[in-house]
Design brief:
This protein has 161 residues and is an all-alpha fold. The protein folds into two domains: 66 residues, no CATH class; 61 residues. It is 55% helix and 0% strand. It is built from eight helices and no strands. Helix 1 packs across helix 2 and helix 6 packs across helix 8. The radius of gyration is 23 Å and the shape is elongated. The mean pLDDT is 84.
């Protein structure tokens, strides 16, 4: 299989070691601010001293970085972003997360209902609202799911005693 340049040799990453480490430390620092130093070290199966060493410049075993996802689901986002990637939970139902179409459909109907030439003028009538009900309920469910995901991402992780 050839790449875009027509070569069979895979292209190398342009990410420098320092960039990678800075992104990794950024995610760990964010997780530490969110849950605290001891709980993060616990989740990563290391001592607080080992965690401080990583934040100070050493590199953790890759498994420990993945374990840190238990403390903060965004801990690897900075590293993934360097590579143009995104880490998404396997159990996340992304099939229902196509928000653009329902939002655009509702927006078009709202714009039509708010038009001065619409039956209610710029005010939405009951019949116009009822005509948008399915789209409103779809967008409401979609945004409720997003808010729940935000709440989960922001919620503090309880340390295991």
């Amino acid at each position: 299989m050839t790449n875009a340049a027509g070569s069979v040799v895979p292209e190398t990453s342009s990410v420098r070691e320092e960039e990678f480490h800075d992104a990794m430390v950024s995610g760990l620092a964010r997780a530490q601010r969110r849950v605290g130093q001891k709980p993060l070290a616990f989740v990563m199966d290391m001592t607080v001293k080992q965690l401080r060493n990583i934040l100070g410049g050493s590199s953790p075993h890759p498994k420990r970085m993945w374990d840190a996802l238990g403390a903060d689901p965004t801990v690897l986002d900075d590293v993934a972003d360097l590579y143009g990637r995104k880490i998404v939970s396997k159990d996340l139902d992304t099939s229902a997360d196509l928000g653009t179409l329902p939002l655009a459909t509702l927006l078009a109907k709202v714009a039509e209902a708010e038009s001065p030439a619409s039956p209610g003028g710029t005010a939405k009538t009951h019949s116009e609202l009822l005509g948008m009900e399915e789209e409103i309920r779809t967008v409401h469910a979609l945004t409720a799911d997003w808010i729940e995901r935000i709440n989960i991402a922001r919620s503090p992780v309880r340390a295991v005693p």
